[in-house]
């Protein structure tokens, strides 16, 4: 099975960006932990980070027929993007939403996610571990 892993805007700055909120792990660190877990779970990952909403929409569309599920941290686009939600809905692929921080414990504008109602579920607040929990959750959905 192949899974599309998407990281939204500013996540390329992990490790440097607001370490008090997002911790010191870099995106490379998260991606290598995900790769190790993917080997263990016997799934293949296709990974992309983009700061651009359109590039994320393109990658989601390209997952149709190529991947069986999507693991996504839409970052700030979580709270703004109808386009990303519509693209995910169009693929009809099981999608798990993850966040490093607990978006429900921060500013009010972060508590709303356009994606959450069409995702299988949302995992947030566990730092980089959110991604690993999300990958496990998605693989268990795909195995059902
Ligand atoms: C984030 C939370 C978002 O509110 C924020 O815009 C991000 C990162 C997280 O992983 O905690 O960029 O998605």
From TrEMBL:
Positions annotated as active site in the UniProt record: 22, 99
The secretion signal range is: none
Q: Where is this site: Transition state stabilizer?
A: 17
Note whether Zinc occurs among the keywords.
no
Pathway participation: Metabolic intermediate biosynthesis; chorismate biosynthesis; chorismate from D-erythrose 4-phosphate and phosphoenolpyruvate: step 3/7
Q: Extract one GO BP annotation from the record.
A: quinate catabolic process
Q: Which CDD domains match?
A: DHQase_II
Instruction: Supply the EC number(s).
Output: 4.2.1.10
Biological role stated in the UniProt entry = Catalyzes a trans-dehydration via an enolate intermediate.
PANTHER family registered for this protein in UniProt: CATABOLIC 3-DEHYDROQUINASE
What quaternary structure, including any partners, is listed in this protein's UniProt entry? Homododecamer.
What is the name of the protein in this document? Answer: 3-dehydroquinate dehydratase
């Amino acid at each position: 099975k192949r899974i599309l892993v998407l990281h939204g805007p500013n996540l390329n700055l992990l490790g440097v960006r607001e370490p008090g909120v997002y911790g010191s792990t870099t995106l490379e660190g998260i991606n290598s932990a995900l790769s190790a877990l993917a080997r263990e779970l016997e799934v293949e990952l296709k990974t992309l980070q983009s700061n651009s909403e359109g590039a994320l929409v393109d990658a989601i569309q390209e997952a149709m027929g190529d991947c069986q599920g999507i693991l996504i941290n839409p970052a700030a686009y979580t709270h703004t993007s109808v386009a990303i939600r519509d693209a995910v809905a169009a693929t009809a692929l099981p999608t798990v939403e993850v966040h490093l921080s607990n978006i429900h414990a921060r500013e009010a504008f972060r508590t709303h996610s356009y994606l959450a109602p069409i995702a299988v579920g949302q995992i947030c607040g566990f730092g980089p571990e959110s991604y690993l929990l999300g990958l496990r959750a998605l693989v268990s959905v795909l195995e059902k």
